Amino acid sequence: MKLPTELFAAVLDAAPDAVLVVDERSTIVFASQAVATVFGHVPSTLVGQPIEVLVPAASRERHRGYRDAHASDTSPRPMGARLDIFGQRADGTEVPLDVSLSPIRSSAGRFTICIARDVTERRALEQKLRQLSYRDSLTGLYSRAFFDTELARLDGSRLLPVTCFVFDVDYLKQVNDSDGHMAGDQLLCRAADVLRRCFRSEDIIARVGGDEFATLLPKVGAEEAEALGRRLGELLAHDAAGVSLSYGFAIAERPPLADAVREADRRMYEQKRASRRSTPA
Length: 281
What we know:
- There is one protein chain.
- This protein is of the alpha+beta class.
- It folds into two domains: 5-123, 2-Layer Sandwich (Beta-Lactamase), CATH 3.30.450.20; 134-278, Alpha-Beta Plaits, CATH 3.30.70.
- The protein has helices at residues 5-14, 34-39, 43-46, 60-71, 120-133, 144-155, 172-179, 181-198, 222-237, 257-278; strands at residues 18-23, 28-31, 82-88, 94-106, 109-118, 162-169, 204-207, 212-218, 245-252.
- The chain has a five-stranded antiparallel beta sheet with strand order 2-1-5-4-3. A four-stranded antiparallel beta sheet has the order 7-8-6-9, with helices on both faces.
- The protein is elongated.
- 27% of the residues are buried.
């Protein structure tokens, strides 16, 4: 039984994503009802217009180039082939899209079915998840993932020298064992507050391990690093909560910056061991 054309149109109109059918000249010959939601156009007004009407003005020439290159390729592309692109709404604003393209042949000629999905909410969620992955949930400082990302970025930058401090929170295990992990978490948060007061808001201060913190300070050399060490000592000496930190720092004059991180870490443990030896039994 041959299904009526009206049924096919009704099926396409029922789809939640925008469905467009474009002919060999890239002229829109069909636009589903969801086009109004995704692009803000009355679907019937798009019929007869070039597909570039839905492409941001700055990208139209490039889109025509891609379209012309594809026109010479007669091989079919699966519907699962997806591109993250931007479309242009009727009001001129841009909308992030997930687009599927599928060429078809029929007795009426060659056409391309385009299915466009508005991914604004998905992009916002992805951005939120990225931000969450870059923040330590307990202290609000940057996470180890962000620290490593910035370390790689600064490795190829012109922001040398870069000073790296590495810190270890003293007595955290004792606090956890005697007063519980909630008290230990509070100690970590107080340590983070001390570091915020010591360094600038634009500096990269991260919690890189259970009781370890680290900083990356672009364009900070030896003299300023020494001054920051003294400032940290003063803040710890006057900290009402009694936070104690062992730390070391090293300065990267050239890549790889990871060498400076390792050296700062080594110096921090040297200070920690020296402190333990000087503490009366």
